[in-house]
Amino acid sequence: MLMSGSVSLYTDKASLYDVDYLSKDYAVEATFLQQLICNAIQYSPAEKPHLLDVACGTGNHLQFLQEMFVCTGIDLNSSMLAIAKQKIPQAIFQQADMTNFDLAEKFDVIICLFSSLYYLLDTALITRTLQMFVRHLTSNGMIIIEPWLTPDKYEEGKCAVQANQTANVSLTRLSVSRRQRDVALIDMYYTVYDGKNVTSFQDTHAFLLLPHTVLQGIFDSLGYATEVIMKAPFQERGLIVAKAK
Questions:
Q1: 7 confidence band (pLDDT: 50, 70, 90)
Q2: Which of 31, 93, 91, 87 has its CA nearest to residue 66?
Q3: Are 53 and 72 contacting, i.e. CB atoms less than 8 angstroms apart?
Q4: Distance between CA atoms of 214 and 120, rounded to whole angstroms?
Q5: Do 108 and 86 sit in the same domain of this protein?
Q6: The pLDDT of residue 163 is above 50
Q7: Which CB contacts under 8 angstroms, 24+ apart, belong to 133-137?
Q8: Considering its fold, how many domains does the chain have in total?
Q9: Nearest to 243, CA basis, from 145, 146, 113, 140
């Protein structure tokens, strides 16, 4: 039976999220982050640094970071958090809005990956979110953000197809990129086979197109120096790393 409709992978179909990103190498990314953090901050070997993953999703990065850090994750989506809690029961997870949260704790490291910050389609909201990050950061801590593609690198009309399969489900995604002024729109068309039925649904993701200098300027106004890192495995979108001046 073929069914169609417009739904969100992050809410209605959260159980398919990990299937969709099965080919993403979270272990390699986590190893790179660990090395980056170890080279940047000092901490006692007897005590693990505290790390906050903002927009942690299903906890795929935290699975590999938990050995080195005391991990906390926040996400707006309760369905994603439920999956994360099953994977990493020893971590702390809380449903929260990145633009306005209070965890009553400060962290040595705050990460916000997979361009999650750029779902905020307003620089005022991004500024408020970075203020939240700074409020939750220790004095010698660091913030690591994976940005979205810059306007000069974003390609309109690009089509990509990806297929992943587990023992229980097969999922194919066709993505088509378009643009409305300073917003990148990715239309995603999914087909799912669960061994009995074939279903389909559509999801659209919107990201704010910003030069890195805009985010760096916001950090500068908050008293933070930044560095842009364009190295594998983050060579496509890069990382923006911020520390207090």
A1: low
A2: 91
A3: yes
A4: 14
A5: yes
A6: yes
A7: 133/54, 134/222, 134/223, 134/224, 136/52, 136/101, 136/103, 136/105, 136/106, 136/107, 136/110, 137/106, 137/107, 137/108, 137/110
A8: 2
A9: 140
